[in-house]
Amino acid sequence: MPHSALAPAPAPTPAPEGAATTKPTDTPTATTATAASATDAQARPAQPGRPQRGQPGRNTAAHALLAELAQRYPKLFGEHPLPLKRGIFQDLTSAHPELQTEALKQALGLHTRSQRYLQAVANSQARRDLQLHAVEPMAAEHSFHALAELYRRKQRRAAQVAQESQRPALQQQAREWFQQRLGKAIERSGLAPQAYAQAVQSRDPDIQAMLQAALEQATLQAAREQAMLQAFEASGVELAQFAEMYGLTTQATEHMLARARLRRLPPPAEAAPDPQARAQAQAG
Predict the structure, then answer these.
(1) CATH superfamily assigned to domain 58-137
(2) Whole-model pTM?
(3) Number of CB atoms found within 10 A of residue 8's CB
């Protein structure tokens, strides 16, 4: 049996504070998902188990190492991975100095370009270290670019369907999927629409147009929820009665009011957001 590339992991120790957290990518190479998505490039996704053209067998070691990482860290590299902290490459080489750096770079590149990893980033899950500690919230721009890449892949698959007559319907389904997910991403970010627009841009005209439409819709929704909060505070009635007046469920009304309260909080420099209000808002 071949010797494993990973030696037994040492006892978990916290990563050095602030270690390699300033780069806007998941790994030190430009091949990671966030690096590719940050440039909003239409890069061709890597095909698992298939070496890149012109590089015969180059990814063999990377795939083997990625399988071992999945065994060692199933929550990070397994079937349903969590987003990796920035600087995870340095953490892995420190924990496993016997690893070949080039193979590790390739393995991380394959992993962070994978469909399942992009889905985790698009869902705005927190970034984790090797001990699964949530060390950094997912940046709105990283979540957006992962979502945009998933949309582009859906469009490419639709364009490659053998039955040409089916392509328009599949492409429209992809657009509707992206528009729905984008609205939720804006909501989950906790940012006002104007702040989200400043943080997120795309060079793809189609994606940028849908982003602008989603932001306009989010602005209208925020105004409605703010008006509802003012009406509720002035009404003096219980939440259930107020919800019935608007023809809404109590839970839906509570979520809308929580989002309105969250937007009304001072900027972070003046006051930290209320964790309970944020949890209620995101639950909706």
Answers:
(1) ProQ/FinO domain (1.10.1710.10)
(2) 0.70
(3) 7
